[in-house]
Amino acid sequence: MKIDKSTLENTAHLARLEFKEEDAQEMMDDMTKIITWVEQLEEVDTEGVEPLTTMSHEVNALREDENKPHMDHDSALKNGPKTDSDYFRVPKVLE
After folding, report:
1. pTM across the whole model
2. CA–CA separation, 14 vs 6, rounded Å?
């Protein structure tokens, strides 16, 4: 498939891309090479090939969730650099 100027402009519009007019021919050539490569992939016989869900056969070793006692309010506030009676004090980030 050969990419023409209108296909390039339509693709650029959909992708919200801007390019210089002098770069259009190079971009059309590059897109044509990409489409040609994808067309070659379509010719590969994939009958009987299982799809990959991951590139690794590693299995996550997860631990069981355990219900443990949580830190009380006063102990948690002791860890903060600035606190008041009920909350951590942080710098203002919104005007």
Report:
1. 0.48
2. 12
50: tokens are 């299982």
Q: Got the DSSP string for the chain?
A: ----HHHHHHHHHHTT----GGGHHHHHHHHHHHHHHHHHHHTS--TTPPPPS-S------PPPP---PPPPHHHHHHTSSSB-SSSB-------
Q: List per-residue pLDDT tens for the chain, 95 residues long.
A: 888 999 999 999 999 999 898 999 999 999 999 999 999 988 999 899 888 887 887 888 899 999 999 988 888 888 888 888 888 888 888 87
**Residue whose pair of structure tokens reads 């100027």 in the numeric block:** 5
